[in-house]
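Throughout this review, each integer encodes one residue's backbone shape. One record appears below.

===
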Amino acid sequence: MSHFSKPKLATPKKKKNIPEGLWTKCPVSGEIIFNKDLEANLMVVPKSGYHFPIGSRARIAGLVDEGSFHEYDAGVKSADPLKFVDSAAYPDRIKKYEKESGLPEAVICGTGKIHGIPVSLAVMDFRFCGGAMGAAVGEKITRAIERALKQKCPCIIVSSSGGARMQEGIYSLMQMAKTSAALGRLAEAKLPFISVLTHPTTGGVTASFATLGDVIIAEPGALIGFAGARVIKETTKQTLPPGFQTAEFLLKHGLVDQIVPRTEMRDRLRDLLQVLFLRKKTRAVAAVTAHEAAVAAT
């Protein structure tokens, strides 16, 4: 009688635990990207060009010269003028937004340099209350515009917002006029304002400063509009063209001047600032010098 021994089975190796949050899947191509590589590329997928959301501080770091940014008005925060309460009190919501976003408000403002060119910069952040504009946001942006006026430098505003903040009612709507009036003074001083529209830019922000730029730039695929598509369709009783609130559609119809990928934005802003600011400044200085020389000769 022969005896058979049980075959020895190899013990399966334990799979190494791969920590979550190291990789991100591109919603367009399905490509899996290492998060550190994605962050190094300003949250833009290299192959497909898909633009993931990016925080305001990371965006600022990708725009200005290293070490040149100086933040202003960080202490300007939302108040509760209407004592607004829905399912939660407005101050409680503000604390929640601060905790979730790590930001004091929906915009960061300051001064910096882009390839050595001084600018006053305001960058909105959708993570804080959907980037909604309340009195604090309007005040900070107005101060950024006035800072450009005082320092005689260009102003750049990067928008990302759901519009006016409903918890502040008329106070938030007043910011549309306030910021627009400040830009009017900047225009009178012949200082350039470049508006950068990112996904999404809607509501009262679109209806005010975001579309008042001397040059209006948008990121690829950004949603840009005033009211939502459903509201517009129900109001007009018309079928809307496909993609009518995208940056590409608005470029075709003249609202947007350029579509610029995030990875090229810093260099494109430099090119525009050289044309709109440096050359004009050089000509102005030359004109003053020629005038002084003519006066001295008489």
